[in-house]
Specification:
The chain is of the alpha/beta class and 238 residues long. The protein is built from six helices and twelve strands. The termini are far apart. The structure holds glutamine.
């Protein structure tokens, strides 16, 4: 069995080690004898029909503007996949653009894909630093944020987590990210998956369950190093 990972716009949208998340997924599959195929999607490409996991990373406002038009073209297909429970991880820039729109701090309105019910407004002050959140499903999650956009969810009850330290979605309402069906949207770079292996395994497990239509229990891995990385990130002052 091969898990097909769709990496959205890796050339433009890949800040603060976000590509490391794709490598973490690949490695955690390999260690369990599961094959992976990484499909790099760039503007103008076709999205294949057999995508098992969707990944998108962060990018500057100018990069977000560059992919805006193409994203509109593939938005219906992405939306259908998310509605059909395809697992996805979208970070910062792509997280914002999976929402309704991002109005930058210069007043430019970038249309989103309308998959997640949220909007983002750019402010002059950037929200930068280490973040610790508490999530109902994965416990403590750690990462690093750097964004001017402040994101507001239509339904705060489906936030990915609650902010313990850092800013999260907007620095005001203590929400961080979103969890909608099997799609996790978050501001956390880092990359997030190596330091939070439970989140990585959630994506892999859901991909396998969708493929086999059966509950899957993943083989446990030795996560001693991952736990160490998590702990040291959690202790770092903001
Ligand atoms: N350009 C967006 C912002 O500043 C996203 C930044 C990012 O992906 N880190 O809000």
């Amino acid at each position: 069995m091969t898990i097909n990972i769709l990496h959205l716009y890796p050339a433009e949208m890949n800040l603060y080690g976000d590509h490391g998340n794709v490598l973490a997924l690949k490695k955690r599959c390999e260690w369990r004898g599961i094959k992976t195929k990484i499909i790099n999607y760039e503007p103008g490409d076709e999205i294949p029909d057999n995508v098992d996991i969707i990944f998108g990373g962060g990018g500057q406002d100018s990069s977000q503007s560059k992919i805006e038009k193409d994203l509109q073209k593939i938005a219906p297909k992405l939306k259908e996949m998310i509605e059909n429970n395809t697992p996805a991880l979208v970070i910062c820039g792509i997280y914002q653009l999976f929402g309704n729109y991002f109005e930058t701090n210069t007043g430019q309105k970038i249309q989103g894909a309308g998959i997640l019910d949220l909007y983002t407004k750019g402010e002059d002050e950037r929200l930068i630093g280490n973040v610790v959140i508490n999530t109902p499903e994965f416990g403590e999650v750690v990462g690093y944020e750097n964004h001017s956009g402040q994101t507001f969810l239509a339904d705060e009850s489906i936030a990915f987590g609650t902010v313990i330290s850092g800013a999260g979605n907007n620095g005001k309402d203590f929400t961080e990210g979103i969890k909608y069906h099997n799609c996790i949207g978050t501001y956390l770079h880092g990359p997030i998956l190596p330091k939070n292996p439970r989140v990585a395994d959630f994506l892999i497990r859901k991909a396998l369950e969708n493929k086999t239509k059966k509950f899957q229990k993943l083989e446990p891995l030795n996560d001693a190093l991952e736990r160490k990385a998590h702990k040291s990130a959690a202790k770092r002052p903001r």
